[in-house]
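Sample pair:
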Amino acid sequence: MTELLVILGVALIVFGPTRLPELARSLGRAMNEFKRASTDLRQTFRDAVEDPAPGSQPQPQPPTQVIAPPSAPQPTATAAAQPEPAAAPDRGPTPT
């Protein structure tokens, strides 16, 4: 509480008794405008999050038929024409 009195005393000395009420009025108006803007912003967010009225929602569309891809890939002509290289047999360690 004493800090507030010191701040008010310094403000009275710096700005003077005629200018201080004008500054307080301007500060009050600015705080009121900020409060109004934050309330409007909160209300906008609430409206956006809430579920809209039941009559305003469009009816859901029936699902479309999806054609599944083939279960096994079909070999192409180039893959079938080239044989796979044979793996080298494992003979174990070489004798020295």
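The chain has a mean pLDDT of 79.
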